[in-house]
């Protein structure tokens, strides 16, 4: 035990000695600095003809014919705005401190500098090595090849913190004011159209439709809007290849794309346009490219999923019925062997008067129960000789679909089968149908139980 205590004391003394030595070296080190203001680079950014740096990798760009070009390959589309910004940032570099008698360059991280930078004009070449960060003031040590070491703001590193692919001019994804259609070419191709007051189905409350030949199938507004937004409102995550050869497309899952998307849209100026791109997957990454382009980007998974999963089953309505109640004049209800008729009169601004047997009644709660009934996408069932649980017929003041019928049939103790205008739409929770029946009974039977 005593030996362990002695070792602990010796270790603490050793740590203090090391700390003191570092502190003394810093004091000695800083004593050799002067507050001399030194101009490292001072040129007009428009006079710069070449930029080179080695952040992550060595890159070099030359300015020729009034544009920046990648020195190694002029096929690369260089981001002119970004390179102009880099040139502007590097056109003026100053130092506020100088080490007049530098120790070995290793002390400053300049024997093997983390970064190097070259700025050239027609008349001069400036080469700068960037070493370690200083002990304070958010500065870094730099060398220009003379006998001194300088300190400058560490933002210099940020100004060259670009890889080659960061400097690629990404292709534009257009600003789409409105989207009229999205076509997805895949194993089971789909075409989604947006149309207000289309008359394609029983309710103009639906805005999105799946075009099936000459027919249109209404889609869920919210989920379809989310899918369309994902396929049209995204941005490239990063560029991974600025010129992929045909033989390289397989690396990105784009030799045979999982989905090809074509968007028809109108911009804010009212001009129509078309935007087409392809999507693929390789490993855990999701890739995209414009239809006739060789530039490859990564995209978020939600973009890929929205396109690949687009289908009627994925996007079909999840509500049992969606009506504009302003168009409804009456509701006929059949349940438990009896038929009831509820009159509906619109008073504007979503206010309605309901009547039953010539008396005004409160029927809003029953309609709330109806609107809360939703399709369970996980449960499937076929309609055979199932017993009717509840039927509602909506009489409307419209030229088309003047009558809409919604039926619920018993399936099991948990679910009922919903049928809209003769078509099975899916299974709904039986307890929700029972709640609707109870709300109707509250009105037509004065609150008596079934």
Describe the protein's architecture and organization.
It is a single chain. About 20% of the residues lie in helices and about 35% in strands. Helix 4 crosses helix 5 and helix 7 runs antiparallel to helix 8. A hairpin with a 2-residue loop joins strand 4 and strand 5. The strands form four sheets. A nine-stranded antiparallel beta sheet has the order 1-7-11-10-9-8-3-4-5. Strands 15-14-13-12-17-18-19-20-16 form a nine-stranded antiparallel beta sheet, covered by helices on one side. With about 450 residues, the protein is of the alpha+beta class.
Roughly how many Å is the radius of gyration?
Answer: 36 Å
Main pleated-sheet profile? 9 strands, antiparallel
Count of DSSP-assigned helices: 8
Span between termini: 85 Å
Relative helix content: 10-25%
- Could you tell me the strand content as a percent range? 35-45%
> Which stretches of 5+ consecutive residues score pLDDT under 50?
1-7, 19-31
